[in-house]
Amino acid sequence: LKRPYITVGFTAFVLLIPLAFTSTKGSIRRLGRNWLRLHRLLYVSGALAVLHFYWKKSAKSDITEPLIFAAILAALLLFRVVHKFSRRRRHSAHSA
Q1: Is 40 helix (H, G, I), strand (E, B) or coil?
Q2: What is the per-residue pLDDT for 2?
Q3: How confident is the model at residue 94 (pLDDT cuts 50, 70, 90)?
Q4: Distances from the Cα of 73 to the Cαs of 23, 46, 59, 70, 89, in angstroms?
């Protein structure tokens, strides 16, 4: 509890372990739709990893690099959201 960045970093790492074990074609087939639900932990893990990096670097007062990683993660997540909604909009326009 003295250094919460260690706890956050370890949590991010632990969340990646089931993703590594279920990234095979066989796991995808066995888990079906639950595979996608499980792999959404990647978003949580990414956010925790950025938070871990920020806290660790902020102790040294140079937060430029963690902010760059946060911006990259935010851009990738924004791209994902925009892509999903534009795909949904195109799909609904074709079916109407």
Answers
A1: coil
A2: 82
A3: low
A4: 21, 7, 22, 5, 24
Amino acid at 52: H
* Radius of gyration for the chain, computed over Cα atoms and rounded to the nearest angstrom: 17
Confidence of residue 42 (pLDDT cuts 50, 70, 90): very high
Sign (positive or negative) of CA dihedral 10, 11, 15, 21? positive
Write down the H helix ranges in the chain.
4-21, 25-31, 33-39, 41-58, 64-95
Per the structure block, which two tokens stand in for 51?
């938070």
Binned at pLDDT 50, 70 and 90, residue 87 comes out as confident
Among 86, 52, 78, 77, which Cα is nearest to 66's? 52
- Amino acid making up residue 92: S
Tokens representing residue 15 in the block: 């969340």
Token representation of residue 70: 């946060």
